[in-house]
Amino acid sequence: PSAMREVMVQAPNVGWDDIGGLDAAREKLREGVELPLKHPDAFRRMGIRAAKGFLLYGPPGTGKTLLAKAVAREAQANFIATKSSDLLSKWYGESEQQISRLFARARQVAPTVIFIDELDSLVPARGGGLGEPAVTERVVNTILAEMDGLEELQSVVVIGATNRPNLIDPALLRPGRFDELVYVSVPDEGGRRRILGIHVGKMPLADDVDLDVLARRTDRFTGADLEDLVRRAGLMALRDSLDAQTVTMAHFTHALEETRASVTPEMEREY
Ligand code: ATP
């Protein structure tokens, strides 16, 4: 029984407007991915190469997947999302084959953004991995060969994501590989305000709901935490009454008592 998986090509439905905060990361991806995919001629004329690989790193739930999808959509590129557990197989040679199929499919439907989540467990530095060292080494070599084989401006860009950048094999971080590091941080107050605004988009809010106050009271909350808070506030309203017409500030305050930031200051200091 082979574990080989179909490589799924998507047209992502997330754009820059769906992302709150993360201005610096957004700008870096716009310039590094969107521009070269949309205007390869301009890069050729200037005689400069475009980056092939980007590494998004930062705490979980901060919007790394969202950023990769949005840049693909804004660049009018196809999007192929995968993660280590999809690529790694216990069958001899299958992980390498799966990786090669991934890149082949990406070239076929280019322009393409390949997104590889959990990159640290796919290509961990020697000794740090979950897999057997020999498998890990072959997987690293396959990825390196595939990335080296991507010609300049061939319209395939690889975006990796990790919560633990220090576990990644340094060979992958050399120029021509994942040579652009993009920190995706926990949002500040302004970022939180914008993320809350996005997630209450479809919610009937009572007049007393003050998103500025909520943004102030959610220090260290990630985008995923804020989305969860909004959902819980909606549930609170329904718990009060299934006929509820609006979600009030009291529902939010109540929900806030039940949630907390998933990222601790210690975790943040690791980056
Ligand atoms: P992980 O490291 O766990 O894979 P991630 O950084 O890739 O997490 P996402 O999957 O992009 O995080 O985010 C999870 C969900 O949280 C998103 O689908 C979105 O609803 C919400 N979210 C996270 N960050 C943001 C943001 N900056 N703006 C709006 N929503 C966000």
TrEMBL record:
Family the entry assigns: Belongs to the AAA ATPase family.
Domain spans labelled AAA+ ATPase: 50-188
Protein name: CDC48 family AAA ATPase
Phylogenetic lineage: Bacteria, Pseudomonadati, Pseudomonadota, Alphaproteobacteria, Sphingomonadales
